[in-house]
Amino acid sequence: MCGFVGYVNQSDVPSDTIVKMANRIRHRGPDDEAYFSDEKATMGFRRLSIIDLAHGKQPMYNNDQTKVLTFNGEIYNYQEIREELKGLGYEFKTDVDSEVLIHGYDAWGPDLLQRLRGMFAFVIYDSKTGEVFGARDHFGIKPLYYYDDGNTFLWASEIKAFLEHPNFKKEFNEDLLAIHLSFEFIPSKDTMFKNVFKLMPGHYFLHRADGHTETHEYYKFSYDNIDENQTIEGDAKKIRKIVDESVDAHMIADVEVGSFLSSGIDSSYVLNEAAKLKPIQSFSLGFNDSKYSELSWSTEFAKEIKQQNTPLTMTGDDYFDILPTIMYYMDEPLSNPSAMQLYYLSKGTRQKVKVALSGEGADEFFGGYNTYLEAKPFETYQKYVPGFVRKGLAKAVVNLPRFHGRRFLVRGAQPLSERYYRVNYVFDYHDRERILKHPELNRDAGEYTKHIFDDVKGKDEMTQMQYFDINTWLPYDILHKADRMSMCNSLEVRTPLVDKEVAKFAATMPIKTRIRGTETKVSLRTAALSELPERVAKKEKLGFPSPIASWIKEDKYRKRIEEAFTSDVAQKFFNTDALLEILQEHINGKSSMQKIFTIYTFILWYQVFFPEETSADTISKVKRTDIDKIPVAN
């Protein structure tokens, strides 16, 4: 696991720029560093050694030294590809997966991507053609960004590396503020920095010598092969085999591998399968308040399967003190409250191991979110009640005081692309009108992501929901925070359930093997019943609970939020009176935690990345263990 940076050369760039860029992300690779430069391009690399510790230095070259590779991730089937390349006459000097990529690209070009199974982001520079090729894994487990303003082309594992390049123009992308407030992330290639783009999951870019950049899709998850003949028992049997094989593949390492463990089925199942292969340490996070802590569950389960568990805890001060630091490492504002827990979990885990398994992806691929259960009632309602009646009922009740069924009637008049709660996850259109200082910035969030629903037009609503989550929530929230919170602690996190082969099978599952009555991911639970205690296999999903909603009501934390809500940044973008009203609503018992947290984290992020535009002292609160300075204006 590593981090890399690079750029197409320009005459006015100092020679030490590449080192400064790489140092910005040295938390991703504290074990080693190396650089490459010729008259056309410059590349930098930071390594976290996992496989073949003595070799595998990057940048890495092909046999005739004309192509140069920097790579972040793991290729789990690299040994198979290695043998295929040997048959073509390629000679290998190491036992690292990186060498498979450089020779594979030399042999097959972009078609190499069809052969790969793993989590990866890599860039290859071709000195003969002057072209730069970059690729990202199927589901976006590993990050890759590029900056392209028509004159300057840069790439890196994290956006913050760009801050060290003299021709990077740091500009806030204000046009996307409303989208962020809706989703808590940006569900597209765009970012909160102008001209900085994510390379999308399942895509590659080619930057040509003439300065033109093009992107291509090489993989797209699809529900085109759903098999209605499949049964719960049959799918459970297949899941057991697939998960067992995937965990085995994800255990490849020359260092000790550990595992995250909550009280839920996903991480428990992964840990249980890993423990069949070798003894494995697990790590769990909780709070002193048992109402929010899962430590007793996870500790008991680890004991049952005779594995060591390390319980970790955090306090409210830990939570709020680390927030500015989290926003720095996150690159873009992300208001998922569980990110802070994940930071401390990763920090504690890294003290014992260098690699950890995690259970992300099970809910998206196997149907684990409770919101999927509402698909059938809405489909029935919309099938049997004419549209004009549904619209009339919605109009009649929308302004009435809350009563049971009111929300259903209002949402029942909307298409799924507008109704699905992930679309206006935090603030809806009217909420944004209320808080935005410049309402003209408000945008239709449903329209912004409607094309994703259009991809699965004609499918049942639950399938559409899952497809949407796999293409937005999973890469931009779940996997994003997993990568940033682990890698800022120099920990590699692997996700056996976010896997090419697991997804291939999940795409064939009919609704009846995903949910049954009020039971979610029923086939996965059935598979787990033969491996785990029933109390674990059937446990209700809790997510990653925290006392954040209660902490906000405590004076010392509420005052921090009030200060932010009346700060110069708040006044620049928001109606501060509306922000304070939302905070008071929460104090009075009307839960607005996610709204409060989204605004609060955005303000902290802006103060960290645009300090020249703020008078706040947030920067002094950032706890930096491996960076020399916080971002400055260019």
UniProtKB/TrEMBL annotation:
Binding site residues for L-glutamine: 97
Pathway: Amino-acid biosynthesis; L-asparagine biosynthesis; L-asparagine from L-aspartate (L-Gln route): step 1/1
Annotated GO CC locations: cytosol
Keywords associated with the record: Amino-acid biosynthesis, Asparagine biosynthesis, ATP-binding, Glutamine amidotransferase, Nucleotide-binding
SUPFAM superfamilies (UniProt xref): Adenine nucleotide alpha hydrolases-like, N-terminal nucleophile aminohydrolases (Ntn hydrolases)
Stretches assigned to the Glutamine amidotransferase type-2 domain: 2-210
InterPro entries: Asn_synth_AEB, Asn_synthase, ASN_synthetase/amidase, AsnB_N, GATase_2_dom, Ntn_hydrolases_N, Rossmann-like_a/b/a_fold
Entry EC number(s): 6.3.5.4
Chemical reaction(s) catalysed: L-aspartate + L-glutamine + ATP + H2O = L-asparagine + L-glutamate + AMP + diphosphate + H(+)
Binding-site list for ATP: 358-359
Site residues, Important for beta-aspartyl-AMP intermediate formation: 360
Single GO term (MF): ATP binding
Catalytic residue positions: 2 (for gatase activity)
CDD domains from the UniProt entry: Asn_synthase_B_C (cd01991), AsnB (cd00712)
Enzyme class: ligase
GO BP term, example: asparagine biosynthetic process
Homology family: Belongs to the asparagine synthetase family.
PANTHER family associated with the record: ASPARAGINE SYNTHETASE (PTHR43284:SF1), ASPARAGINE SYNTHETASE (GLUTAMINE-HYDROLYZING) (PTHR43284)
Entry protein name: asparagine synthase (glutamine-hydrolyzing)
Species of the source: Secundilactobacillus odoratitofui DSM 19909 = JCM 15043
Organism phylogeny: Bacteria, Bacillati, Bacillota, Bacilli, Lactobacillales
